[in-house]
Write a structure and sequence with these properties.
Elements (H helix, E strand, L loop, with lengths): L18 H4 L10 H10 L4 H44 L4 E2 L2 E2 L4 H11 L19 E9 L14 E9 L8 H4 L8 E6 L3
Antiparallel strand pairs: 1-2, 3-4, 4-5
Helix pairs in contact: 3-4
């Protein structure tokens, strides 16, 4: 019989060895450590999450600062509007260069500034503004010696001018987070006497 030139079949090797022999620790395969470390450092799968985690505290702080600044501007606008309205009201009351004529007018102006009502029955326009002592009403005189101001002021040597100033308390909700330590602000408005 003729011999065939074919080789005998080789035994098939197992595709994978059991884990107990192929899953050794890195200490048993020190030549793989630099390659594995390089692959981990070059990987980009979690980079967005890491960047977000690094930026998140600053974004939260900035958010609190915007809310605090918004509240401050809102309270400031309320205070400016209230002293302007109170000065307009006061300018129509009887007064002389020495001051307001009626004794209760100062309290009415203070109540109007703080609550928006003359008798003070309304709630404060700014929640923490509970004291009328933060509102001052002063009357000064502008000289009309040369007849500079005519019309209603003809013949008067001085024109009364009323000023309403207020210092409402301001409590910053996020002060410890933003570093703002503002406790109050002052606004004022003045009007010439127009009774």
């Amino acid at each position: 019989m003729a011999r065939s030139s074919a080789r005998p079949p080789t035994p098939r090797r197992s595709a994978r060895r059991p884990c107990s022999t192929r899953c050794g620790s890195m200490t048993s395969r020190p030549h793989l450590a630099p390659r594995l470390l390089g692959r981990l450092l070059a990987g980009r799968e979690g980079s967005a999450a890491v960047e977000f985690a690094l930026v998140l505290p600053f974004m939260v702080l900035l958010c609190f600062a915007f809310v605090g600044a918004g509240r401050l501007f809102w309270n400031y606008h309320i205070a400016v509007s209230s002293v302007r309205d109170a000065a307009r009201y006061a300018a129509r009351l009887p007064m002389t260069c020495a001051g307001l004529t009626n004794a209760g007018d100062v309290a009415n102006i203070q109540n109007l500034t703080r609550t928006g009502t003359k008798d003070g029955s309304g709630s404060p326009l700014i929640a923490t503004w509970t004291s009328n002592a933060t509102v001052t009403v002063t009357v000064t005189c502008v000289s009309n010696a040369g007849g500079t101001y005519s019309g209603r002021y003809d013949g008067m040597t001085g024109v009364p001018r009323v000023q309403v100033a207020a210092t409402p308390p301001y409590i910053e909700s996020f002060g410890p987070l933003t570093g703002i330590t503002l406790t109050s602000f002052t606004v004022s408005s003045q009007q010439a006497w127009t009774e």
